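Reviewers of the previous submission asked for a worked example of the structure-prediction workflow described in the proposal, so we include one complete record here. The input consisted solely of the amino acid sequence. No template or homolog information was supplied to the procedure at any stage.
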Amino acid sequence: KDTGARFTFFVTAHYESWSIHRDELRPLVDSGRIQLGNHTWSHADLTAISANEARSQLERTKTFLRNNFGVDGTPYYRPPFGRHNAAVDRIAADLGYTVPTMWYGSLSDSGVITEEFLIECARKYFNPQTIIIGHANAPAVTHCYGELVDIIRERNLSMVTLNDVLIAP
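From that input alone, the workflow returned the following structure tokens.
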């Protein structure tokens, strides 16, 4: 809040943290500082399950987003593991998710890592016009957030939502 950061979070709705932190996040979503996209219900590989299961993964999260945050995440979805194909993209598009969102680099924090490694990843991947994923589901990122912001400022970069850069004003 205090840095003015803008983010797009891709929600895996089955994780209870989205419900636990809803009241803190909702005002940021309402203000447009935080944008939400769909990352499926339980992080299933959409290319390895049936079409009905893939639809359910996306639909359940769409409903969760609408009921808890007043948005549905369209048009963006981030396929778990980056795996999608034409069939998955058709299912997603039928639900309004017409933009499968991929990334350039990662903070590698989907599991427990050291703060030093997270900063090393940031120094490697924080570059102009790139999408970097971070998971913010382990303590390291909360401990070195200030350093991440410093790297962004040193490089004269901006933290933006996808709509900030992909939707024409």
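The mean pLDDT is 93. We consider this example representative of the routine output the project will generate in years two and three.
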